[in-house]
């Protein structure tokens, strides 16, 4: 039986595991991942007298609901769960009302918009004790967790090296040098990824573009990686400005890859689409496992006195691979057993 003091945790198999809409911006992303204010397809479990409260703040869309489902299943015997649905119109006052009403011992925040909303709440109420928070499904969490006073969580980015290894396992084409374009705010993130990739003898070659870069700037950076650096593959960061819209993708990424086809690793499943080819491989989180991992993190913090700010940001423990099999067959050499290493093959 699971208890707060001695938690029996289910194991999560597979190796390490962003999705652009999780940034909270209107952009290309998985179908149904907007935060439209519709009625939720769930109910919070009935409260149990004497149990501590856990507040979940999240958009009302499928991926977030998947995470919530397994999170609630993991913690419901020990916590009273209250869910605050967050939209672009949700106010700091509504956050304040939810916290005053439920008095949670901890909050689980899903996506960057929700984190920003709670940051605004802390700024508006500097004299109130900071609530321990667990942040999931937010972009570049290691670099933004300091926006909250007592935050930890689970990174949503797949470490580059994990994706590169997955690519290497399905293609016979050697993957020794991977190119990545990044803006200045992501320089530290890239440096960390370069160190991780080097352990697997993969050189991650970066090209920095200005904060407010143009399509021409991006094309020039991609061209330099492909023609000068001779990279074997490209990695698209989960940065909204690198995607923008369909026209931007056509005149940048697709334009350069038509001239020099290379495998493109992405972190968003719907950028892998044989009908509109772009990404070769997407490595995305297993949302059920992510919710379970978040539930285990709740118990970890409870065991440690809710010192979220002292807990490192965890890496996701489970991923799924999605491959444009048509693109891979037409342009690259697939390994004979590649299909057995793919969770979802698209043709």
Brief summary of the model shown:
The protein has 347 residues and is of the alpha/beta class.
Features:
seven-stranded mixed sheet, elongated, Rossmann fold, single chain, 11 helices, 347 residues, alpha/beta
Detailed description of the structure:
The structure is a single chain. The protein is an alpha/beta fold. The chain has 2 domains: 20-157 and 287-318, Response regulator (Rossmann fold, 3-Layer(aba) Sandwich); 160-284 and 321-346, 3-Layer(aba) Sandwich (Rossmann fold). Helix content is 35%, strand content 16%. It is built from 11 helices and 12 strands. It has helices at 62-75, 92-102, 112-124, 141-144, 160-170, 187-199, 215-228, 240-243, 246-259, 287-303, 325-331; strands at 53-58, 80-85, 106-110, 133-136, 151-153, 177-182, 203-208, 233-235, 264-266, 281-285, 319-324, 344-346. The strands form 2 sheets. The chain has a 7-stranded mixed β-sheet with strand order 7-6-8-9-10-11-12, sandwiched between helices. It has a 5-stranded parallel β-sheet with strand order 2-1-3-4-5, sandwiched between helices. Strand 3, helix 3 (112-124) and strand 4 (133-136) form a beta-alpha-beta unit. Helix 1 crosses helix 10 (287-303). It is elongated, with a radius of gyration of 21 Å. The chain starts with 52 loop residues before the first strand and ends with a strand.
Question: What's the CATH class of the largest domain, please?
Answer: Alpha Beta
Strand order of the main beta sheet, please? 7-6-8-9-10-11-12
CATH structural fold name of the largest domain: Rossmann fold
Mean pLDDT over all positions:
88
Percentage of residues in helical conformation: 25-40%
CATH homolog superfamily of the largest domain: Response regulator
Label the CATH architecture of the largest domain.
Answer: 3-Layer(aba) Sandwich
From the N-terminal CA to the C-terminal CA, the straight-line distance is 45 Å
Secondary-structure-based class equals: alpha/beta
Major β-sheet annotation: 7 strands, mixed
Count up the domains.
2
- The coarse silhouette is elongated
